[in-house]
From TrEMBL:
Transmembrane segments: none annotated. One of its GO terms (molecular function) is tryptophan synthase activity. Keywords: Amino-acid biosynthesis, Aromatic amino acid biosynthesis, Lyase, Pyridoxal phosphate, Tryptophan biosynthesis. Pfam families: PALP. The keyword Lyase applies. Pathway: Amino-acid biosynthesis; L-tryptophan biosynthesis; L-tryptophan from chorismate: step 5/5. This is Tryptophan synthase beta chain. Residues 87-398 form the Tryptophan synthase beta chain-like PALP domain. GO terms for cellular component: cytoplasm.
Length: 416
């Protein structure tokens, strides 16, 4: 593959067309174009408006509970040092968790939802729509819609509605309408198609609250900017707590919002190694994984050009992961660009490895991580024993695992 020339900064994208190199853009129906341009204009004003920033900051503090802590995971560090010693290496890097699991609604998703609901308000929109897979983004959207008094429709694949009943009920309690989508395999990709269709039909009054750093420009940029609070905080906290930058930072990649949120403020710190973790599912040989950057090809889906899981005819595949939040056949376009430019490494972690990391973290830290986050932890478990003791790794703990206990019980052959 041809590597694009190394830019001076990795933090300047996208360009005015919404491109990150050859990725991104806005491949949408003509009827959507005025909406997207309107959104872009409001976003460009909002991001430079002190009043907008102040309102978001107050909500982040008093409603969502920010800043989230940067926590030294002493139990996990000790465990990995024991492994390192047993291998005769005598190392074991220090592990820190960025605690997005402590946020209101239990994950990083609230950061983006608070930002976008303020944008909707600014645009004078009266109705919120969202797509959801596992239901985490649906719950976060329904939450901010309730807080701001907007009606909210959440599109969710019919298969997912069956699989994620507690979240469906939560959304209903919060006042949202959940619309099951029966097309395709009834999963996230189909829900996103349906939400885009709704948006085209209800252009006047509707705001589409996208849940990850994907979709047509300017969504990948604005979601990244709302999530960058993670990396901005983590960078400052690390400087304060350790007096230096970390050696490695790791995050799980579904659509890529928690990962780009952690990564972006570190992209120009050349000494920091950055690793994104894709869902390796049951292995990259077959089709039961969601590793679009390790096993996919560039194509166009949901309004942008990016790495996608597709068959020889360009049909989008569904993919598989133990974790519903990583179960998206594409990835945000900025990640595709960071992959090709070589700044960020992307590695797969298998279902079994994530499950083991889930159980380990629960036992040695007393923290039940989301299965998505467990993928990132699993990679730290792999590399930390081979690193020296004075090295530092930050893992993004993107969410809490309460939502996953049924899946885990199933995998362990137990019944709750
Ligand atoms: C949704 C979700 C993810 C994956 O989404 P990204 O946009 O890739 O961050 C990861 N972790 C948790 C806890 C989630 O809820």
């Amino acid at each position: 593959m041809n590597k694009p020339a190394m830019p001076n900064s990795f933090r300047t994208g996208p360009d005015e067309q919404g491109m990150f190199g050859i990725f991104g853009g806005r491949f949408v129906a003509e009827t959507l174009m005025p909406l997207i341009l309107d959104l872009e204009q409001h976003w460009n004003h909002a991001k430079n408006d002190p009043a907008f920033k102040a309102e978001l900051s107050a909500l982040s503090t008093f409603y969502a509970g920010r800043p989230s802590k940067l926590y030294f995971a002493e139990g996990l560090t000790r465990h990995l040092r024991d492994i390192s010693a047993a291998k005769g290496l005598g190392g074991g890097a220090k592990i820190y968790f960025k605690r997005e699991d402590l946020n209101h609604t239990g994950s990083h998703k609230i950061n983006n939802c608070l930002g976008q609901i303020l944008l909707a308000k600014r645009m004078g929109k009266k109705r919120i729509i969202a797509e959801t897979g596992a239901g985490q983004h649906g719950v976060a959207s329904a939450t901010v819609a309730a807080r701001f008094g907007y009606p909210c429709v959440v599109y969710m694949g019919a298969t997912d509605v069956e699989r994620q009943k507690p979240n469906v009920f939560r959304m209903k309690l919060l006042g949202a309408e959940v619309r099951p989508v029966h097309s395709g395999h009834g999963t996230l990709k189909d829900a996103m198609n349906e939400a885009l269709r709704d948006w085209v039909t209800n252009v006047e009054d509707t705001y589409y609250l996208i849940g990850t750093a994907a979709g047509p420009h300017p969504y990948p940029e604005l979601v990244r900017d709302f999530q960058s609070v993670i990396g901005t905080e983590a960078r400052a906290q690390m400087l304060e707590q350790e007096g230096r930058l970390p050696d490695v930072i790791i995050a799980a990649v579904g659509g890529g919002s928690n990962a780009i949120g952690l990564f972006h403020p570190f992209l120009d710190d050349k000494e920091v190694r950055i690793i994104g973790i894709e869902a390796g599912g049951r292995g990259l040989d077959g089709v039961e994984h969601c590793a679009s950057m390790n096993a996919g090809r560039p194509g166009v889906l949901h309004g942008n050009r990016t790495y996608l899981l597709q068959n020889e005819d360009g049909q989008i595949l569904d993919g598989h992961s133990i974790s519903a939040g990583l179960d998206y056949p594409g990835v945000g376009p900025e990640h595709s660009w960071l992959r090709d430019s070589g700044r960020v490494e992307y590695e797969p972690i298998l279902d079994d490895e994530a499950l083991a990391a889930f159980q380990l973290t629960t036992k040695v830290e007393g923290i039940i991580p989301a299965l998505e986050s467990a993928h990132a932890i699993a990679h730290a478990v792999k590399i930390a024993p081979n690193m020296a003791k004075d090295k530092i790794v930050i893992v993004n703990l993107s969410g809490r695992g309460d939502k996953d206990v049924h899946t885990v019980a199933n995998m362990m052959g137990m019944e709750i």
